[in-house]
TrEMBL record:
The gene is deoD. The lineage of its organism: Bacteria, Pseudomonadati, Pseudomonadota, Gammaproteobacteria, Alteromonadales. Residues 16-213 form the Nucleoside phosphorylase domain. GO terms for molecular function: purine-nucleoside phosphorylase activity; uridine phosphorylase activity. It catalyses: uridine + phosphate = alpha-D-ribose 1-phosphate + uracil. NCBIfam families: deoD, PRK05819.1. Its EC number is 2.4.2.3. It comes from the Bacteria. It comes from Aliidiomarina iranensis. Gene3D superfamilies: Nucleoside phosphorylase domain. This is Uridine phosphorylase.
Length: 243
């Protein structure tokens, strides 16, 4: 048990899919897992463990933002024997090459956040996902015939910026294709704890066209991304597949 997760070590599988939204976690568990059981609900951050095609897997929400995913991913990695966390989030597109509901695999997270600096003094503005997890996610997408984009994402501490247009500068200077709010901290925690993390995102908002998904779509509408992530858990479950 930790201050934020009331569960026993054996309650979590080796691999956790982690959406920001607790109701997306519930939807994934109820829709896709066999024998899903709730393993924690502290602060309504719902966590479930079950199996997908006979492979154990857990689903747990992260809440919104780097402080929140920083806490949950740290506790999962250090206390509950979790080896792999795959974030399944939503994002806002910075480029017209991304369309609403497209799926994006993060190959890098750029951030102006102080998360890493505060956590252990790291000053680098980039953190990276596990190459092996990304390979398994690419293979899962290809097997299922689901197209994905790949590239840098901007992990922002702020959803409502004073200057909307600042995204154009971040896209031009940092190459970020989209914005979300967690992967920089998740990748940092995985690296410092010698664990593994990846991030799949569905475009829920478009900063150029100003299209936006409904809250219902954010909860239950991201099936392709979820199916790609679930399609990789068999690889992730094999002990010798060290990433
Ligand atoms: O849909 P989730 O996974 O929460 O991800 C995105 O949505 C939230 C903002 O609406 C932030 O958490 C952002 O990263
Ligand atoms: O951080 C985020 C997530 C989804 N949509 C956005 O515009 N920003």
């Amino acid at each position: 048990m930790t201050p934020h997760i009331h569960a026993q070590p054996g309650d979590f599988a080796r691999t956790v899919l982690m959406p920001g939204d607790p109701l997306r976690a519930k939807f994934i568990a109820e829709t896709y897992l066999d024998e899903a059981r709730e393993v924690s609900n502290v602060r309504n951050i719902l966590a479930y463990t079950g199996s997908y095609k006979n492979t154990p897997v857990s689903i747990m929400a992260s809440g919104m933002g780097m402080p929140s995913i920083g806490i949950y991913s740290w506790e999962l990695f250090t206390t509950f024997g979790v080896e792999n966390i795959i974030r399944v989030g939503s994002c806002g597109a910075y480029t017209k090459t991304l369309k609403l509901h497209d799926v994006l695999l993060a190959t890098e997270a750029w951030s102006e956040s102080s998360y890493a600096k505060t956590q252990n003094g790291d000053m680098a503005p980039h953190n990276h996902p596990s190459a092996k997890l990304n390979q398994w996610l690419q293979e899962s997408a290809a097997r299922q015939g689901i197209p994905i984009h790949e590239g840098t994402v901007h992990s922002s501490d702020v959803f409502y910026r004073h200057e909307h247009e600042v995204f154009q500068k971040i896209h031009a200077e940092e190459g970020a294709l989209a914005v979300e709010m967690e992967s920089f901290a998740l990748f940092h925690n995985a690296r410092v704890l010698n664990k593994h993390a990846a991030c799949l995102l569905t475009v829920s908002d478009h900063l150029i066209t100003e299209e936006a998904s409904t809250s219902q779509q954010r909860e239950t509408g991201f099936k392709q991304m979820i199916e790609i992530a679930l399609g990789s858990v068999k690889n992730c479950s094999i002990e010798n597949n060290s990433v």
